[in-house]
């Protein structure tokens, strides 16, 4: 059960009701601090809609963070979002294999992006080797967007866990296809 209330539109000042366009528990909880919710949504919106980073690679990086951190909410939401941006079931299976150190059919750049996300979660920073490997194929702008995306979602999963965010039933369905160890 969440530690703060989920607010509905009629509980929020009119100038902040736009923050609830995405009817998710995350947005309903964050709007307890409407200006912070707006700032949070600004960066999240940039990552999703304006970043020039390949959207499939972006979503794979986000999924890697959610999977490693066992963040049911983040992982299940981004499975559905990722599929809108070209992530396939084979990609997700590849992510799971790569996480376990097993071979996958993912292309080298996707493997490197996933490794970079794992390093940032586990070791704080991406290694020189991984950064340089990715940098061979991505521009400086793409590298900044990738690193900030991974860092942002490292923060998001901590918000979700600390606030004890409840996952919506339609997203929980994702766990039937992709069960997470330790998550019911």
Describe the structure.
With 184 residues, the chain is mainly α. It folds into 2 domains: 1-50, no CATH class; 53-177, Up-down Bundle (AhpD-like), CATH 1.20.1290.10. 63% of the residues lie in helices and 0% in strands. The chain has 10 helices and no strands. Helix 3 (55-68) packs parallel to helix 8 and helix 6 packs antiparallel against helix 7 (128-135). The mean pLDDT is 97.
Tell me, what's the shape? Answer: globular
Indicate the percent of residues in helices: 55-70%
Rg from C-alpha positions? 17 Å
- What number of domains? 2
Unreliable spans are none
What is the CATH class designation of the largest domain? Mainly Alpha
Q: Please tally the helical runs, counting DSSP H or I stretches of 4 or more residues.
A: 10
Q: Mean pLDDT across all residues, rounded?
A: 97
CATH superfamily of the largest domain: AhpD-like
**CATH T-level topology of the largest domain:** AhpD-like
| Total strands | 0
Give me the secondary-structure category: mainly alpha
N→C terminal distance: 14 Å
User: How is the main sheet built?
Assistant: none
In short:
The protein is mostly helical. It has helices spanning 25-30, 34-50, 55-68, 72-84, 89-99, 108-123, 128-135, 140-162, 169-172, 174-177.
What are the salient characteristics of this protein?
about 180 residues; mainly alpha; AhpD-like
Give the helix/strand layout.
Blueprint (H helix, E strand, L loop, with lengths): L24 H6 L3 H17 L4 H14 L3 H13 L4 H11 L8 H16 L4 H8 L4 H23 L6 H4 L1 H4 L7
